[in-house]
Amino acid sequence: MTYAEGIAGFYENRATWTGILAAFMFQLVFGVVWMTGYDGVTDRTANLKVAVVNEDQEMGSLVVGSLGRSLPFGIVTVDLPEQAMNMLNDRDVQMVLHIPPDFSSQLQVPGGQASLKYWINESNPFMIKSIMQSVASQVTAAVDKQAIAAGAEAILTPMNVPADRVKEIAAALSERVVSDIRFTNPVQGMANQMLPMMMVLASYVGSMIMAMNIQQSSQAIGSAFTAWQNSARAPLSTSYPPLSSRCSRHR
Fold first, then answer.
1. What is the DSSP code string of 105-125?
2. Distance CA 76, CA 87 (A)
3. Which of 96, 153, 178, 187 could cysteine-pair with 84, CB 3.0–4.6 Å?
4. Do 143 and 204 fall within a single domain?
């Protein structure tokens, strides 16, 4: 048999075309499921909610007002930290921002730093956790700029320093607001965080391998049953005469 004849025989086999078709169909089905399932995921971030507990009525009120204008999420104002934590654990909100009562007073201390406290439920999907961590950093940076600008303006304006110069000095000052991010229901290790996605991927791969092995088992069992039937018919038809002839012989 020549090489060309071998290739032609390979493509004449039905299993070859079944395998090629299965490969294309898997790509098609997986692509459709992936594109429809994950299409517009980032467009639905407006459905996320952040609970804000403001215990500082000075600078804290300005922070809450700026959050409502800048964040693309729903802002839920809560009076008690315990209530906000219950909402976080029930997944009614995805993050809790707590502005402590001494926030403004800490900013008024020369060289002092104020802290914004964040709580994130780590049992949420990894994407939500990542988004909320990014939002916490952005909120802290924005509040820090406001605090520095307000402090510099309060100190330098009475000295008749030009406004442009005040902004330059404020930009050069060190940070006054820092983040204190904490997690509820912590998930230990990267492996545990990626486990849901790995389980889905393992199900896809395992189903493909199972389908191939079941197909091979079906073919093997089918051919085995045919062989048994042939081997069973042959001795009965050749080695053993009919019962009527054996009875007449013994007569």
1. HHHHSTT--EEEEEEEETTS-
2. 10
3. 96
4. no
Which residues constitute the domain of residue 244? 194-251
Give the distance between the most distant pair of CA atoms in the chain. 139
* Mean pLDDT of the 48-75 span: 87
* pLDDT over 50 (residue 243): no
> Under 8 Å CB-to-CB from 94, ≥6 apart: which residues?
48, 49, 50, 73, 88, 120, 121, 124, 128, 131, 132
Q: Please identify which residue in the block is written with the tokens 């002092």.
A: 112
Nearest Cα to Cα of residue 94 among 184, 193, 186: 184
Q: Per DSSP, which regions of the chain are E strands?
A: 49-54, 74-77, 95-99, 114-121, 177-184
* % pLDDT > 70, the chain: 67
Determine, yes or no, domain membership for 124. yes
| The pair of three-digit structure tokens given for residue 81, joined into one six-digit string | 């930290």
